[in-house]
Amino acid sequence: MTKFYETSDVFEYTPESLLEEYFSVVRYHVDRLAARIPRSVETGDLVNAGVVGLLEGAARFDPNRDIDFKTFISYRVNGAIIDFLRSNDWLPRSLRGSASEFQKVMLLLEGRLGRPAQEEEIAAELGLTLEEYRKRLQQVQQMSLVYFDDLPSFSEEEADSVLDMVACDSSQEPEHQTGLIEFVELLAEAVTRLPAKEKIILTLYYYEEFTMKEVALIMNLTESRVSQIHSQLVLRLRALMHLDDD
Fold first, then answer.
1. Residue 186 domain flag
2. What one-character DSSP code corresponds to residue 155?
3. Fewer CB atoms near the end CB (10 Å): N or C, the chain?
4. pLDDT tens digits, residue range 166-203?
């Protein structure tokens, strides 16, 4: 029988008992992501990927690090589901091209203005009306799923715990761990340069883990408007971090 650990406590269990106790973690991440991906992606496939992440994460958890077992498992489950989606490359290349264009304009305007560009300024630079720009943001909203959702937190204050989480993941090669740590450090720096409204949405959605609907209620905006701003903040972060898919 295999031993698994929760902080300093050691307990033994079968894969069945592990699933009984922590399957709710898999279900949580599947439900959270399912609403934001095409219907062609089978929910059962996401569940299977999450279960693999749960079992592999439990086997690789290092009890000697000051990381909560359930928190680590949640990180591994979500990461496994995201890896499954990435491997299937379900995002149309035309949307990647639009996103890349938006990112370049955002970075260009920030350099020119010395501050984050407002959406009216971005739209004008793209030769679009504000309504057209917002519609295109709505089209690329799913891109955030494969860009940042595999990180447990985005808040600047939580950067150290994210780095600890990455370091605790012994399944990664040292070179890959180094790359992830550099990515998180770049992300933390980019977050500080976001406009206030985008920071609020980022904190509420990723750190506080409210749904888009709940964020909309808190900010007194429509859910579609919050979704548009969310898409913009993801593209802005990618621009600031000089990430591109072309």
1. yes
2. -
3. N
4. 455 555 555 555 666 677 778 888 889 999 999 999 88
Q: What residues make up the domain containing 216? A: 93-240
Give the tokens for residue 155. 């808040």
Contact criterion met (CB below 8 Å) for 239 and 106: yes
Find the CATH number of the domain harbouring 159.
Answer: 1.20.140
> Which residues pair with residue 9 across a beta bridge?
6
What b/e string do you get for 12-22 counting C-beta neighbours within 10 Å, with b at 16 or more? ebeeeebeeeb
Mark which of 88, 121, 153 sits at the end of a domain.
88
Same domain? 104 vs 219? yes
Q: pLDDT tens digits, residue range 83-141?
A: 887 777 555 666 667 788 999 999 999 999 999 999 999 999 999 999 999 988 887 76
Q: Find, among 96, 99, 94, the residue nearest to 86 by Cα.
A: 96
Residue 209, by phi and psi: left (phi above 0), alpha (psi -120 to 50) or beta? left
Domain assignment present for 19: yes
